[in-house]
From TrEMBL:
Descriptive protein name: Trehalase
Lineage: Bacteria, Bacillati, Actinomycetota, Actinomycetes, Pseudonocardiales
GO MF term list: Glc3Man9GlcNAc2 oligosaccharide glucosidase activity
Gene3D superfamilies: 1.50.10.10
Organism: Amycolatopsis pretoriensis
Sorted UniProt keywords: Glycosidase, Hydrolase
Length: 410
């Protein structure tokens, strides 16, 4: 019955070649959403999971970037803002999102091996990672810099408040998100205005270079390092041992740069490239380096995860912001609520570092909370109450994946 419910969400959000995160709030294809959706879909419809990823990569730009939105031509132009007319980039946006795609491609292949699928996407994935390495190393330290909060996937994180303070908000636009979401759950008008300003400035620069917001995000970079490890797995599957070794070396370089640049006092912090200073906000992005199996500082990071700031194992999911911070808000977008994808990623990290009991507790909680809230977009970590959209794509997909996983035992 639980599998049936989760599958029904994905069926209801299917457009024919891709899956929307939400029929109301997000009526197009989003980049990292599709990767998580494919990870769940592989258990029920592997051919559809392959189609999901192939559709997304059909919109890859010549420079290698994978755009964060692929617009559905059958959806009314005014259903989402900013839409295609704002971006002036054809059928896509011009921003990116975290590179979780290689991990999804490898997972889909391993469920139902398809060498053609793997061989088709491997060069596209390499080009995507090469774009990030060559076009986004703003700090010269081997780390990717994001140029907009939306690129982190954690749009409204308190970690962006300081860098965003330099940005003058745009005005005169109509927000569409408030048509489908409570204002108390969504970003403020001023912050949304800053998002629009950054996006329009980047568009007007031809989607190149760096503006006022330039940040090295630990979550994005940890996911890139993990994606390089996944690419190594893909290269192994394709019989390319030298390429696999190169990808593993790349992952190690990113991990080393993160530890040298973003690590301080038991946590990974974002770094504002414009000021050269770390942003002193404890957000869930700083926990994602747990995905890296050889992370030397894992014990200290686990201590922070289970300590009072996140209370992992004693709250619902993984809070998106420090529970002890003045800015913590249990219901507002990325300023405190727990998200299924972050919980899923952190669980993978716990397993890498031998925390089987905690991983199993998190798995059970994520499944129970998703089912109880009708697959809510995000939840209050203290009460488990649902917020945002319901029948949310990646919540349902990752529930399917967690239901398919064997219980983690010590």
């Amino acid at each position: 019955m639980d599998v049936t419910r989760a599958t029904a969400v994905l069926d209801g959000n299917w457009l024919g070649s891709s899956t929307v995160p939400s029929r109301s709030l997000y009526p197009h294809q989003w980049s990292w959403d599709s990767a998580f959706i494919a990870i769940g879909l592989r258990h029920r419809a592997p051919a559809r999971a392959r189609r999901e990823l192939l559709t997304l990569f059909s919109a890859q730009w010549r420079d290698g970037r994978v755009p964060h939105i692929l617009f559905d031509p059958g959806t009314p132009a005014d259903a989402y803002f900013p839409g295609p007319s704002f971006w002036r980039a054809g059928r896509t946006s011009g921003l990116v999102q975290p590179p979780v795609h290689a991990r999804a491609v490898l997972a889909v292949h391993r469920t139902e091996p398809d060498r053609t699928f793997l061989a088709t996407l491997y060069p596209k994935l390499r080009a995507w990672h090469e774009y990030l390495r060559t076009h986004r190393d703003a700090g010269g330290r081997g780390l990717v810099a994001i140029v907009h909060p939306w690129e982190s996937g954690m749009d409204n994180s308190p970690a962006w408040d300081g860098p965003l303070a330099r940005v003058t908000p745009s005005t005169g636009f109509v927000r569409r998100d408030l048509d489908h979401g409570a204002a108390a759950d969504r970003p403020s008008d001023d912050d949304y205005g800053r998002y629009v300003r950054l996006a329009s400035d980047y568009r007007d620069r031809g989607y190149t270079g760096f503006g006022e917001f330039v940040v090295e995000d630990p979550g994005f970079n940890a996911l890139l390092a993990d994606a390089e490890l996944a690419l190594a797995g893909i290269a192994d599957e394709l019989g390319l041992p030298a390429a696999a070794a190169t990808h593993r070396e790349s992952a190690a370089r990113v991990a080393k740069a993160m530890q040298e640049t973003l690590w301080d006092d038991g946590f990974f912090f974002a770094r504002d490239v414009r000021t050269g200073r770390r942003v002193p906000e404890y957000t869930c992005a700083g926990l994602l380096p747990l995905l890296l199996p050889d992370l030397a500082v894992a014990p200290a990071l686990l201590a922070t995860a289970t300590g009072p700031r996140f209370r992992l194992g004693h709250v619902h999911g993984v809070p998106s912001h420090d529970l002890t911070a003045p800015a913590f808000d249990p219901g507002r977008y990325w300023r405190g609520p727990s998200w299924a994808n972050v919980g899923w990623l952190v669980r993978q990290g716990l397993l890498h570092h031998g925390e089987h009991t905690l991983a199993e507790h998190l798995r059970a909680d994520l499944v129970e909370t998703a089912l109880r809230t009708d697959f809510a977009e995000y939840v209050d970590p203290l009460t488990g109450a649902g917020h945002g959209a319901r029948s949310f794509g990646w919540t349902a997909a990752l529930t399917l994946d967690l239901l398919a996983q064997p219980a983690a035992v010590a």
